Amino acid sequence: MSTALLSETDLAARVGTTFPGGEVRLEPWWVHLALDAIGADPADGPGHPALVFLVATGAMGWDWADLFAVFDADEQDGPMAGETATTVHTPLQFGTTYRVAGEIISARRKEGRSVGVFDIVSYRLDLIGETGDVDASTTNSIIFPRRRGGA
What we know:
This protein is α+β, with helices and mostly antiparallel strands.
């Protein structure tokens, strides 16, 4: 568990950090399994909006531990999923290779009476189709609980 509290200056300096990114080809078998796993009808196919998050985070170029480490945190700190928003400009298609690009778009410190200090970090991941256009985006936040001086 990380014990140092990231300064607010260091937290703000991470805004604009880009993800390494990657590429993924949308295959029918994967879409079927992914939709079945989340309780969606596999017949919905690649146009199901939940796939935007799954495809984007699966090819963002970091695993979750890498992303948490950017903010001097790890899974033992108890990071939580916050808000999520998905925008689909063009429905995803079977057989298309998507390039994933993204960045940290905000990072702010807050304090609550019951939960104490926490950071809210937002990031956006874009799925860029073979034409070079952004076909879909997912914008999400992660809440990092912070403990001053230790656990």
